[in-house]
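Narrative summary of target 7.
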Amino acid sequence: FVGICVGMQVLFESSLEDKNAKGLAIFNGRVEKLKHPKTPMVGWAQFQSKDQFYQQQFVYFVNSYGIGQSDYCVAAVNYGAQFCAIVQKDQVTGFQFHPEKSGHYGLEVLQRCLE
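Modeled conformation, tokenized:
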């Protein structure tokens, strides 16, 4: 399963964006308003990850809410504060960014999670 942008956010337990909404709770945690210098965050940002595949790569974001930290975070981005760009658990992957708008590398990321 792949969740992109808000599709990643619904994989968590709840969100401050709509306090009455419940998520799928595949991942523990709550989606929160991110501490961006400018909201919403629109544009390119570079991954930080221990996984070499995600290092030094720029991807496209459009978001105001997200997950600050998670045990399942495999790649993060710092834009005013660090937040999860990719979470993964078993066969479930969530992308806070838009791989479909992130050029050739975005397509590689999608392909990798489908393999």
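The longest strand covers residues 82-89.
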